[in-house]
Amino acid sequence: MASRGDRDTVTGGAVVIVGALLLAMAFALGGKSEDASDGYDLAARFNRADGISVGSPVRLSGTLVGRVVGQKLDEQYRAVLTVRLRPDVKLTRDTAAVIYTDGLLGAKFVELKPGGEDEMLKPGQEIAYTQDAVVIEDLLDMIIQQARAKRGYLDRPLPSATN
Fold it and tell me: What pTM, to 2 d.p., does this model score?
């Protein structure tokens, strides 16, 4: 009969082996869904790109068509995002790039909105029309300031129950 210590050691070893196999499968299969070398790159310049990082999704009509592959600042300190799109996605020159939030507190992504021109963007070109991310804190602050101004408390503190 095997001792309790031996049985615990074998069980622990099996758990570690199964965990290592699952981790290896996740790494092996995780990179197959999108090949980073496929597609072409476009640039988009934003005043604010809050919440966007390398790997953030790029969508067109709600469908995943690419990823953000680069992020840098230009000489005017604006965020320049490089997005890599699938090779089958062709965009017109007047396409707009907008930063949206997935739900109220979800992750940020770049949504592409194609225009009506006939001429298409070529790899390496820049998307001319962009709309920055809306920062929830700024939006709430603006709402609070408007409410204070409407009630006449813009330059003085709000009354408290103890006064």
Answer: 0.64
Q: From residue 24, give the alpha-carbon distance in Å to each of 20, 124, 145.
A: 6, 35, 52
61 CB-near residues (< 8 Å, 6+ apart): none
**72 in Cβ contact with 80 (< 8 Å):** yes
| CA angle (7, 10, 13) in 5-degree steps | 150
Strand spans (E) along the chain: 40-46, 57-60, 63-73, 79-85, 96-101, 108-113, 126-127, 129-131
CA atoms in the 13 A half-sphere facing the CB of 145: 6
Q: What is the pLDDT of residue 133?
A: 78
**Percent of the chain residues past pLDDT 90, beyond the cut:** 41
**Which residues, 6+ apart, have CB-to-CB distance to 85 below 8 Å?**
39, 40, 41, 42, 58, 65, 66, 91
Those residues with Cβ within 8 angstroms of residue 101's Cβ, 6 or more apart along the chain or in another chain: 51, 107, 108, 133, 134, 136
Asked whether the predicted pLDDT for residue 22 surpasses 70, the reply is yes
Structural Rg of the chain based on CA atoms: 25
CA-based nearest residue to 136, from 111, 110, 99, 82: 99
